[in-house]
Amino acid sequence: MPTLRFKQVDVFTARPYLGNPVAVVFDADGLEAATMQRVAAWTNLSETTFVLRPTVRDADYRLRIFTPRSELPFAGHPTIGSAHAVLEAGIVPERLELRQECAAGLLRLAIARGSEGRRIAVEAPRASLLSLGADAIGSLEQALGARIAARTQPQIVAVGPRWLTVLLADAAVVRALTPDLNALAALSRAHDLTGVTVFALVEGENHDLVVRSFAPAAGVPEDPVCGSGNAAVGAWLDHAGMCAGDGTRFVASQGRELGRDGYVTVRIDPETRRVWIGGPAVTCIDGVLTL
Prior knowledge:
Order of helices and strands: EEHEEEHEEEEHEEHHEEEHEEE
Radius of gyration: 18 Å
Number of helices: 6
CATH architecture of the largest domain: Roll
Number of strands: 17
CATH superfamily of the largest domain: Diaminopimelate Epimerase, Chain A, domain 1
Strand order of the largest sheet: 1-2-3-4-6-7-8-17
Shape: globular
CATH class of the largest domain: Alpha Beta
Largest sheet: 8 strands, mixed, barrel
Helix content: 10-25%
Strand content: 35-45%
Number of domains: 2
Distance between the termini: 6 Å
C-alpha cells in the first residue's frame, strides 16, 4: 500500500500539545479530493492539509485544506502549521518570505526567528463584511446563551471562511459560554457561515482579547485556536474603528476552555488594511500515512 510523509503540528504555541493541531500530508499530488476528505474525516482534527506541487508562478507550494466535512479556501492555523512543516521537511528552503497557493489565491507568509523559535505570519485574504440582519440577533443570542455587547453590530466577515463575528460584554462571558451547538449549526446553515467567532477585550493580561470559535455545521464544535476567526476579529475591529493592543497589533488568547491555551498575534497593515495573523508552531508527530 502507498505511504505518504505526514506530520502533526501544534500551531499558536511553542509547547507541544497546546495550541491547535493540524495534520499535514506531503506529496499529495496523486490523491483525489474524495481521498483527502476521507483522511480529514479520519484525523478528526479541525483541519487536515495536503501539500502539492504549485500550479502558479511564484508559489513555493500548493495547499488544500479540509475540515472533517468539507474543503476550505483558506484557514489560518493550517496555513501556518503547513508552512512550518514544509520548512522543517526541507520542501522549501529557509528564508524570510514564502508564497502559498491555495483556493483563496496566492498568499504571502513572513518568517522570523525569536525566543520561541520560528514564527510564521500569513496575510489573510482581503476581508469583506456584511452586517447580520436585526431579525437574526435574537436567534444568535439565544444560541449563544449571551447578549451581544451594547451598541455593537455582529458582522459576517469573509476571509475565505465566513465567520459571524460577535463582540460580547467581557472576557468572563466569553470564557463561560456553553452555546447550543445545534442552534449555531442551524444559524450557520441559514446564513452560509463557516461558524461563529465571539470575542471580548481585556486589560492587564498578557493578551488583549479573548476569542472562541464555534463551527458545528463544518464538523468542528469548537476550534481550539482559530487563525481565520482571529483574522475576522481583526477585520471587525478595524471596520468598527475600535482599538486593541497598540491599535494596529494585538494578541488574542484562545483555547483555554479546551485545555489548549494558544496565542495569536494579529496585525493590521496600516496602508492596505489587510490582516496578518501569526505565531509559533511545533511538530508533535512525524511519520508516514498509509493509504
